[in-house]
Amino acid sequence: MKLYRVVMMFFLIFGYLQAEMNPTEVTTAFTKEHNASKGDIEEINESEAISLEEENRELKEKIKALEAQIEVLKENETTIETKTEDSAAFMKASKKIFKGAKLKIGGKAPKFLSTYYAANYQSVTDVKSKLESNGFRVLAVTPILKDKIVLTITNDELQKTNTLLATLHVLVNVGDEVRVQNPSYFGAAYLQDKYKYGQFTETLKALQAALGDMYEVKEKYELADLGNYQFLFGMPYLNDTITVAEGDDLLTKVTGKSAQKYVAYTLKLPNGDVIVGHKLRNKTNQFLQKIGVDRDANMLPYESIIKGKKAVILDPKYYLALSVPILSMSEFMKIASAPGEIEKDVKRAYK
């Protein structure tokens, strides 16, 4: 903008000079000055000197007038900049229009459950503060991909399940939306016949208080089939877990200094089991982008659970499919290496 004002001043002054002196006068003045001898210069009469002083004074007055015009331009420019900033602030504050149904807590069980709920965008700082104000404990804030930040949370209601449902992942899609795992969806899958629709009402109310209105997403699955979920025939079920470590010192390994770069958090459950949240390699996390589901990056961090002298994980072939129930077979084949990479990354923390 400073360059703009300098250019405007130049053109205004140039226009003035052009108006005050035509080309003929410029040429004549130059010729006279060029041809004048030293003696001629000494004989310049007083009237000519006075005339030059007057012209000089008039020129200064013109310049002052031009400076005043430039100040007006500066004021107009400030107004334009303010309007631009106001417009940007409006765009940032504008709410996203969601296509899914708005969450209404209570009522009878639906046929399909949404895997996640989406809400209007808030910053990571605001989300964390509001979650904590509504009874959640934030275990970790983990970057998964660029502009994909996950806050892992827990509360008493979730911990009473003594399962991997003791934690939920909340994703801040920077500049777009906030997305949270639906405890009813994962509760139906993990608790199976022990699950009763509506048992996580308090958690949902707290999430709604923290995040505002929440909406269903296109990732859904039939409630009646979640307890016995299987992606395809021959694929793993919930209880087809993978053992990633065994020994007496498993907790010591994942809480030691050397494990810090591999472990995001740990959570001891009421029954003594311990959930461990794992930081996967950036290369591993990229499977989300390969199939275009980075909007669901809050299926991570991947978790293991220590049960006595054994640490296990859900088979990634089960968990990834459960987390993206709209996944097709061809899409699943695009990330065929992801389950093995996830298992390998988790095992690093137990070495």
Automatic annotation (TrEMBL):
Q: Which residues form the signal peptide?
A: 1-19
Coiled-coil annotated spans: 42-83
Q: Which UniProt keywords are listed?
A: Coiled coil, Signal
Highest taxon above the source species: Bacteria
Q: Does the keyword Coiled coil apply?
A: yes
What is the recorded name of this protein? Answer: SPOR domain-containing protein
Q: What is the lineage of its organism?
A: Bacteria, Pseudomonadati, Campylobacterota, Epsilonproteobacteria, Campylobacterales
